[in-house]
Write the structure tokens for this entry.
Amino acid sequence: FVSEFETWRAEEEKRTVSMFRKLRGDRATNNGSSTTLVCCREGQANILKNRKRSLKSQGSRKIGHICTSHMIVNKLMQPENKIYVKYVKTHYGHKPEVQHINLSQADKVNIAKKLVVGVSEERIICNALSSKNEIAPSRLDTLNKKVISNIRNEFGIGILGGRRHKNEMMRVDLWIAEEKEKENPCVKYYKRYDEEDLEIGFSKDDFCLVIITKEQSDFLEKYGHSVICVDSSHGLGGTDRTIQLSTALVIDEYGEGIPVAYMCCNKIDHFAFEKMFLCMKESYGININCKYFMSDMADALYTAWKNVMGEAGIRLLCSWHVLQAWSRNYSKVKGNTDEERKEKVKCLRLKLRSLLFEADLNTFERKYKEFEEELSLPQFKEFKEYWMERYAHRLSEWAFCYRQDMPVSNNMHLESMLKVIKYFHFDGRKVRRLDESIIGIFKYLEQWFANKRRLYL
């Protein structure tokens, strides 16, 4: 009978756009108990004088006086086993307003079920709005992402198979402990906060996690002899928001980038990358002798690779990073007036792009000779010093005419992977929790390798 009463009560609250709460605890009677339910709108709002948070835009749900609507529920035990309800329907002092009632438990359960099977938040909100009834408004009419996020927290949905702990780093620890118990654990190295690893150079303030799955090891063994691309992306998440995701990719026979190792670390130096490459070496079994090694402009990456694997056949600089580095140094160009300086920077940018993307070697050599003559002008003195120090002796590493038969020219494979993770597995939002970032990476790997297996069938 209790479940039947709760069902009737939920339907009545939905029909009248209201919500009832207990006035006090149950009172014992001769043959059962009695409960008084009053309208949630009655009573005084308890607003602190030194309140820091702003009031809700719709204001408090409390109306400042008593509402006449209430229920007196008498539960009779043996031998009757019945529930008698005295119900006053008429409300006083307020209108039926959906913004002042809570989402029903049944609606929460329905939303939680959709989240469990993978329905996106946008689809849930869209379905709720499309079923909007103008005659009988519902709390679902005001559904938003914040409400869905609260439901995720309440039911423990969506993070590492369900939230195991309120603390972000504790959830990561629990997940890693479970992963290490598996037959082929993907965690190759883990250094948490508040611990030291002086052998590598990590202090208590550093965090590092290296992930290489069994499938990634197989692809590293198959394609690691050709091209290795390594790069880092900023703002992965974590307690201090400084953890970066570093990824090593190989290129398959279809020209598609395959991630073969991940490192989540707040330090991007040769010590951290040496640990990542050591994990790759242990996973592969021997040194990885790649023909081409592509990275950004920092020497820390290639220095770490040489220390662990030895010299690569040919080192390449990512064209996107090269263009970005040049743009940051155009300020070294001088001019008598601001307009003259802007014009010289514009011409310099066009000439450098022409040099970078020139495919014919003879044409490149002719253009480069003209470019060197122009750098002799006094307006380019500072830029010439920068150029001679960084690029003049590394033409084969950045010019396209030297990489005509090479399978890769930039790190767009990595950029594509990061976009897929963000827009398909993070729903386009910026993730600030490390545990959510890790599960997003694994969702991407699971989907990617599933598609790859179908391709090879």
